[in-house]
């Protein structure tokens, strides 16, 4: 247990170092007027310089560690490793985004609801749904709650905090992953595997920051969990063997439940596979004598993990579960109604003719050779097999008109294989050096391996901005909450949002969190904490909100002809009705809302359709109607 407490202390210290590095670096980057990334190569060039400096620093840290024997010197070396690893993460994401206030993918599609969520939780610390008034959250609020509270504490608009919080949170996860690795393997190995997995996570998982945090932490946590589950395998193992690892696994699993449902489900699935595999092996091994007792040990440990995770998960899930017990729900499973081409086939990154493919191939070979003799290889191998099994199950669940969103595990698969590849590369280099110890070429093996590894790391890392280029471009072309674009070009219609917000608060005389807005321009809700009457799509909607029934209600409004009919419909609405309609001007004096419906299993899985509301519905003294740019704003006056 003392070892577990020491690990927790080091992880907390690593998180503080990561926050300090991220804050200082991001402030420094923001003080300079940079050119836009899509129209200039300067930011890419400076990103490469920063990456090379950080990777060279990590090599130097590893070299110093091997020659340092004093405890104080090694402590400083670990601190330097944390600083360089954190700086690598920040420069890889922060520098390309240096000239925009928006994060990857701007304020478009998925980032709309993510920004809306952090805006909601900046407005109040209460756990509330991102869109719908009076509902508990369905989407895990953990990451968004911390970001929202940081925005409120700093008095900064939540949308503006999204980028620094995303970068900082990923940096924290990378630093903690480094600590987890160095607590389990040699420090030099920890530097290598953390740098490798961090680079792959940044390249393929960073647009979804809370997912990226779990992804980079998953390999060391699987190793920790596997060691905890099998700690009682030895006959001479003490009664409390592996207790800290088991509790740590439970805490991690519970944390993922408050962070991201998909990776929580996958992690729970993988841990269950580990326990069942061990139980089966022990049953077969001890069949002549006490097979049941031996097989039950990993299952008891699994129960402890599940119980610990359940307690933590209840902190965010209990309000929704209690409400769902006695409230009507609809669109259940709609969040899983997405099957792109990547979700219809298995992915084999180890067979791709790329640098990443080579590392994944090395990792695959290492897993095959070492899975039975190495705890690390065994844990990572089960994780990889779990992804393929999850993918096949996802394909089968299409028969039940749903999926398990297996395509979203592709970054996780790459990270697990790259972690294995890093260990495989190191072990192969050491074995080759040992084989040539008595020959002239033996002494040059490790320096050559280090040079190849460093060159590969630089080559892959400097390509990350190009991998992220589509997401970076949107971050510069979307209009932010100040009505500006990162590329300094003319902003889009979002530049009128500030005027719309001022008009709404002036006419209603109410705080934003007491006003429900009916709009199809959902980015307005990302910048201002108004409630929405209808969400972006059913895939992001709270099942308690009854998305399909609300859509039917809106369609009924389109058949109304007079303001009296609309007022009556609003007053008898089964949900808190909108008092503000933010629409676009259509043909024939109508106002339009462009909404969406779920058409899964078709791809695309969403069909857009337009609802026309007659202008006569708002032609009444009870409504204040304003034209603001391309928008029509109809506000029901207080008391009307």
From TrEMBL:
<feature type="transmembrane region" description="Helical">
    <location>
        <begin position="43"/>
        <end position="63"/>
    </location>
</feature>
<keyword id="KW-0472">Membrane</keyword>
<feature type="domain" description="Arabinofuranosyltransferase AftA C-terminal">
    <location>
        <begin position="464"/>
        <end position="636"/>
    </location>
</feature>
<feature type="transmembrane region" description="Helical">
    <location>
        <begin position="241"/>
        <end position="257"/>
    </location>
</feature>
<feature type="transmembrane region" description="Helical">
    <location>
        <begin position="12"/>
        <end position="31"/>
    </location>
</feature>
<feature type="transmembrane region" description="Helical">
    <location>
        <begin position="75"/>
        <end position="95"/>
    </location>
</feature>
<feature type="transmembrane region" description="Helical">
    <location>
        <begin position="412"/>
        <end position="432"/>
    </location>
</feature>
<protein>
    <recommendedName>
        <fullName>Galactan 5-O-arabinofuranosyltransferase</fullName>
        <ecNumber>2.4.2.46</ecNumber>
    </recommendedName>
</protein>
<feature type="transmembrane region" description="Helical">
    <location>
        <begin position="165"/>
        <end position="182"/>
    </location>
</feature>
<feature type="domain" description="Arabinofuranosyltransferase AftA N-terminal">
    <location>
        <begin position="10"/>
        <end position="456"/>
    </location>
</feature>
<keyword id="KW-0808">Transferase</keyword>
<dbReference type="InterPro" id="IPR020959">
    <property type="entry name" value="ArabinofuranosylTrfase_AftA_C"/>
</dbReference>
<feature type="transmembrane region" description="Helical">
    <location>
        <begin position="263"/>
        <end position="281"/>
    </location>
</feature>
<dbReference type="InterPro" id="IPR020963">
    <property type="entry name" value="ArabinofuranosylTrfase_AftA_N"/>
</dbReference>
<keyword id="KW-1133">Transmembrane helix</keyword>
<dbReference type="Pfam" id="PF12249">
    <property type="entry name" value="AftA_C"/>
</dbReference>
<feature type="transmembrane region" description="Helical">
    <location>
        <begin position="189"/>
        <end position="206"/>
    </location>
</feature>
<feature type="transmembrane region" description="Helical">
    <location>
        <begin position="346"/>
        <end position="368"/>
    </location>
</feature>
<comment type="similarity">
    <text>Belongs to the glycosyltransferase 85 family.</text>
</comment>
<dbReference type="GO" id="GO:0016757">
    <property type="term" value="F:glycosyltransferase activity"/>
</dbReference>
<feature type="transmembrane region" description="Helical">
    <location>
        <begin position="444"/>
        <end position="461"/>
    </location>
</feature>
<keyword id="KW-1003">Cell membrane</keyword>
<feature type="transmembrane region" description="Helical">
    <location>
        <begin position="302"/>
        <end position="326"/>
    </location>
</feature>
<dbReference type="GO" id="GO:0005886">
    <property type="term" value="C:plasma membrane"/>
</dbReference>
<comment type="pathway">
    <text>Cell wall biogenesis; cell wall polysaccharide biosynthesis.</text>
</comment>
<dbReference type="Pfam" id="PF12250">
    <property type="entry name" value="AftA_N"/>
</dbReference>
<dbReference type="GO" id="GO:0044038">
    <property type="term" value="P:cell wall macromolecule biosynthetic process"/>
</dbReference>
<keyword id="KW-0812">Transmembrane</keyword>
<feature type="transmembrane region" description="Helical">
    <location>
        <begin position="212"/>
        <end position="229"/>
    </location>
</feature>
<feature type="transmembrane region" description="Helical">
    <location>
        <begin position="380"/>
        <end position="400"/>
    </location>
</feature>
<dbReference type="GO" id="GO:0045227">
    <property type="term" value="P:capsule polysaccharide biosynthetic process"/>
</dbReference>
């Amino acid at each position: 247990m003392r070892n577990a407490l020491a690990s927790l202390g080091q992880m907390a210290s690593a998180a503080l170092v990561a926050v300090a590095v991220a804050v200082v670096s991001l402030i420094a980057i923001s003080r300079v007027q940079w050119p836009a990334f899509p129209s200039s190569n300067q930011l890419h060039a400076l990103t490469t310089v920063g990456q090379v400096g950080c990777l060279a620093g990590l090599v130097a840290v590893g070299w110093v560690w091997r020659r340092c024997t004093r405890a104080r010197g090694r402590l400083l070396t670990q601190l330097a490793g944390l600083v360089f690893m954190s700086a690598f993460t920040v420069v890889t994401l922060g520098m390309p985004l240096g000239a925009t206030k928006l994060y990857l993918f701007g304020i478009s599609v998925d980032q709309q609801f993510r920004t809306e969520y952090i805006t909601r939780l900046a407005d109040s610390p209460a756990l509330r749904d991102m869109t719908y008034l009076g509902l508990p959250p369905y989407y895990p609020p953990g990451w968004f709650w911390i970001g929202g509270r940081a925005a409120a504490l700093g008095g900064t608009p939540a949308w503006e905090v999204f980028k620094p919080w995303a970068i900082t949170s990923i940096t924290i996860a990378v630093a903690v992953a480094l600590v987890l690795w160095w607590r389990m393997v040699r420090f030099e190995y920890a530097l290598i595997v953390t740098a490798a997995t961090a680079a792959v996570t940044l390249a393929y998982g960073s647009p979804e920051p809370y997912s990226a945090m779990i992804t980079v932490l998953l390999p060391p946590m699987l190793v920790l969990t596997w060691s905890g589950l099998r700690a009682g395998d030895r006959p001479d193992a003490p009664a409390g063997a592996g207790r800290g690892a088991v509790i740590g696994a439970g805490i991690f699993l519970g944390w993922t439940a408050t962070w991201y449902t998909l990776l929580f489900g996958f992690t729970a699935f993988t841990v269950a596979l580990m326990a069942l595999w061990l139980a089966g092996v022990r049953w077969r091994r001890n069949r002549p004598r006490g097979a049941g007792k031996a097989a039950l040990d990993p299952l008891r440990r699994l129960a402890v993990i599940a119980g610990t995770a359940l307690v933590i998960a209840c902190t965010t899930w209990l309000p929704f579960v209690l409400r769902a017990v006695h409230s009507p729900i609809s669109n259940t499973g709609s969040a899983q109604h997405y099957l792109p081409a990547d979700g219809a086939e298995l992915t084999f990154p180890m067979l791709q003719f790329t640098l990443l493919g080579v590392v994944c191939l090395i990792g695959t070979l290492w897993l095959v050779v070492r899975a039975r003799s190495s705890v690390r290889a065994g844990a990572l191998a089960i994780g990889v097999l779990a992804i393929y099994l999850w993918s096949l199950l996802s394909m089968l669940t299409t028969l039940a008109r749903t999926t398990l969103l297996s395509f979203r595990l592709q970054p996780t698969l790459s990270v697990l294989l790259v972690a294995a590849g890093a260990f495989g590369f190191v072990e192969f280099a050491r074995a080759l050096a040992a084989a040539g110890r008595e020959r002239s070429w033996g002494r040059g093996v490790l320096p050559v391996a280090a040079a190849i590894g460093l060159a590969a790391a630089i080559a892959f890392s400097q390509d990350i901005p190009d991998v992220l280029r589509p997401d970076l471009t949107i971050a510069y072309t979307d209009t932010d909450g100040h009505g500006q674009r990162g590329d300094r070009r003319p902003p889009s219609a979002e530049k009128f949002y500030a005027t719309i917000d001022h008009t709404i608060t002036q006419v209603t005389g109410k705080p934003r969190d007491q006003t429900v807005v009916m709009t199809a321009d959902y980015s307005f809700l990302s910048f201002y904490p108004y409630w929405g009457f209808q969400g972006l799509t059913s895939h992001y909607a709270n099942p308690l909100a009854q998305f399909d029934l609300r859509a039917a209600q809106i369609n009924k409004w389109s058949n109304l002809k007079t303001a009296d009919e609309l007022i009556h419909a609003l007053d008898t609405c089964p949900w808190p009705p909108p008092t503000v309609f933010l629409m676009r001007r259509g043909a024939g004096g109508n106002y339009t809302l462009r909404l969406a419906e779920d058409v899964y299993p078709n791809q695309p899985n969403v069909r857009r359709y337009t609802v026309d509301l007659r202008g006569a519905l708002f032609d009444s003294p009870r409504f204040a109607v304003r034209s603001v740019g391309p928008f029509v704003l109809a506000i029901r006056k207080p008391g009307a």
